[in-house]
Amino acid sequence: MNSSAINHYAAAIRDAILAHEADIECLDREIGDGDHYINMKRGCEAITGLADELSTLSSADALNKIGMKLLSTIGGASGPLFASFFMSMSKTLKTSDTMTTLQIALAFEAGVQAIMQRGKAQAGEKTMLDVLIPVATAFKQLAEQGQSSKDISAALKTIASDGLESTRNMLATKGRASGLGERAIGHLDAGAKSCQVMIDTICDLVLSKQ
Amino acid sequence: MNSSAINHYAAAIRDAILAHEADIECLDREIGDGDHYINMKRGCEAITGLADELSTLSSADALNKIGMKLLSTIGGASGPLFASFFMSMSKTLKTSDTMTTLQIALAFEAGVQAIMQRGKAQAGEKTMLDVLIPVATAFKQLAEQGQSSKDISAALKTIASDGLESTRNMLATKGRASGLGERAIGHLDAGAKSCQVMIDTICDLVLSKQ
Amino acid sequence: MKKFVNNIDHMLVESLTGFATAHGDLVEVQFDPTFVSRKQKSQQKVAIISGGGSGHEPLHAGYVGKGMLDAACPGQVFTSPTPDQMLAAAEAVHADKGVLFIVKNYAGDVMNFEMAAEMLPFEHATVLTSDDCAVVNSTYTTGRRGVAGTVIVEKCVGSLAETGADLASCKALGDKINLLTSSIGVALTSCTVPAAGRPTFDISDSEIEMGVGIHGEPGRRREAMRTADVIVADMVNAIVHDFEAKQLPTQGDILLLVNGLGATPLMELYLIYNTAAKLLTEKGFSIARSLVGNYITAIDMAGASLTVCLLDNDIKQHWDSPVHTAGLRWGC
Amino acid sequence: MKKFVNNIDHMLVESLTGFATAHGDLVEVQFDPTFVSRKQKSQQKVAIISGGGSGHEPLHAGYVGKGMLDAACPGQVFTSPTPDQMLAAAEAVHADKGVLFIVKNYAGDVMNFEMAAEMLPFEHATVLTSDDCAVVNSTYTTGRRGVAGTVIVEKCVGSLAETGADLASCKALGDKINLLTSSIGVALTSCTVPAAGRPTFDISDSEIEMGVGIHGEPGRRREAMRTADVIVADMVNAIVHDFEAKQLPTQGDILLLVNGLGATPLMELYLIYNTAAKLLTEKGFSIARSLVGNYITAIDMAGASLTVCLLDNDIKQHWDSPVHTAGLRWGC
Ligand SMILES: Nc1ncnc2c1ncn2[C@@H]1O[C@H](COP(=O)(O)OP(=O)(O)O)[C@@H](O)[C@H]1O
Ligand SMILES: Nc1ncnc2c1ncn2[C@@H]1O[C@H](COP(=O)(O)OP(=O)(O)O)[C@@H](O)[C@H]1O
Ligand SMILES: [Mg+2]
Ligand SMILES: [Mg+2]
Ligand SMILES: [Mg+2]
Ligand SMILES: [Mg+2]
Question: Could you tell me which of A122, B97, B139, D199 has the fewest CB atoms within 10 Å of its CB?
Answer without folding.
Answer: B97
